[in-house]
Amino acid sequence: MNLDERLQNVAIIGAAGKMGSGIGVLIAQEMAKLKLQPENKDNIYRLHLIDISEKALDGLRGYMRAQLTKRAEKTTVLLRKLYTDRKNLIENADIIGAFVDDSSSVLNYTTDLGAAKDAHLIFEAIIENEKIKIRIYKRLNRMCSDDTFFLTNTSSVPISFLDEQSGLGGRLIGYHFYNPPVVQRLVEVITAKTTTDKLKNVSTELGKRLSKKLVPANDITGFIGNGHFVRDGLYALHQVDSLKKNHRYPGALYIMNRVTQDFLVRPMGIFQLIDYVGIDVFQCILKVMRTHLGDTSLRSKIIDKMVKLEVLGGQHADGSQRDGFLKYERNRPVGVYDIRKKEYLMINDAWKRRVDAKIGPLAEGCAPWKTLLVNPKKEEALAKYFDNLKQIDTLGGTLAVDFLKKTKEIGEKLVSDGVAHSADDVNAVLTNGFYWLYGPINDYI
């Protein structure tokens, strides 16, 4: 069975979540394109969007239509070719509307896992809990064909472990989309030793269809993306613990967040990133990695306490940022959580000036991430800036240089431990998946 045939009947488990919904948009679009081909006019196409909550599925309906409309608006040239036989579709708006209708017509919203029984491809994008994943895979294995392929969006659980525990016989592959899937180009592809060649080929072809950049990772818990991210986060938390003696906890957290954003020229600070992912998700990934690696250092008392206090970060249903380490207004940080007082210290101008004075000025040549992103000579600009950074004797400069060294060390260890095939693959994940301007394995430091 080739990919075109498999795309006639597809299921997404966890479809109302932020990852499952994005995957749903991508697959619905591909199915609609196939449906419009003259040779497929008699085929029936179904994309089963499965989730446990009817309320979440109601929200998903609006999201799918809005996102399919946005995607269609960007591909009107292609859509005109698909609808050449529809002479009544004249304006772009007519064509866009028709494509959204055709894409929506393949969708089946349901809370019934049994809807997946005839699916040829099943995407799983549920909570990062291996026991729940295995329980669902066992149910799917009992009801689905022996030819069904499974693609898990897990960002940390070893594929061989899931495959073996679920009895899938090599029909499972790690297909880790990055958030949001409709925008992010990167997909980390993780194969187990048992993963069949047919599934590998299908996953490669699917990546091409979706215009994704596929980066391979070996089947070691955490893989490349989270293997780097959580260790980056743990190092930042360690630095906060050291800095709080002189700057108190909110000041220490603000310092590390600002250093990792402004001084390291990243799109957001490390604590904004943890909030974006979700503090509870970060804790869950740590637990999975700690369990499968037997590494007790993969734990944070601060993370555990934040989860216990139910200060979790993550996103609201409309995509806006929930409060976590930082408090947000219109997705911009306006406060820092004081874990001792269990309340937010609001960032006013006077407080910010005092802490920024302790951090010290940026090195000469520093430019905001957005500015360098479109700079055709960004590598040259970064090299000059980091040379200057090494020369400044300030708290911010010292912390930034130390962080650069640590982040490079983490990246190199992912290669030496066999998680990544090469330094290029590590850098590809961080630049494509996390929007860094430069990979962690570099010659700047």
Let me know the largest β-sheet.
8 strands, mixed
Total count of helical runs of at least 4 residues: 17
Give the domain tally: 2
Please tell me what the overall shape is: globular
Named CATH topology of the largest domain? Rossmann fold
Tell me, rounded to a whole number, the average pLDDT: 96
Q: What pattern of helices and strands is seen along the backbone?
A: HEHEHHHEEHEHEEHEHHHHEEEHHHHH
Strand content: 5-15%
**What is the chains' assembly state?**
single chain
CATH class of the largest domain: Alpha Beta
Query: Mind telling me which CATH architecture of the largest domain this is?
Result: 3-Layer(aba) Sandwich
Which strand order do you get reading across the main beta sheet?
Answer: 3-2-1-4-5-6-7-8
Q: Please count the beta strands (DSSP E, at least 2 residues each).
A: 11
Q: Give me the CATH superfamily of the largest domain.
A: NAD(P)-binding Rossmann-like Domain
Helix content range = 40-55%
Question: How would you sum up this structure, described in words?
Answer:
This protein has 445 residues and is α/β, with parallel strands linked by helices. It folds into two domains: 215 residues, Rossmann fold (3-Layer(aba) Sandwich), CATH 3.40.50.720; 209 residues, N-(1-d-carboxylethyl)-l-norvaline Dehydrogenase, domain 2, CATH 1.10.1040. It is built from 17 helices and eleven strands. The strands form two sheets. The protein has an eight-stranded mixed beta sheet, with helices on both faces. A three-stranded antiparallel beta sheet has the order 9-10-11. Strand 5, helix 7 and strand 6 form a beta-alpha-beta unit. Helix 9 packs antiparallel against helix 16. The longest helix has 39 residues. The radius of gyration is 23 Å and the shape is globular. The relative contact order is 0.09.
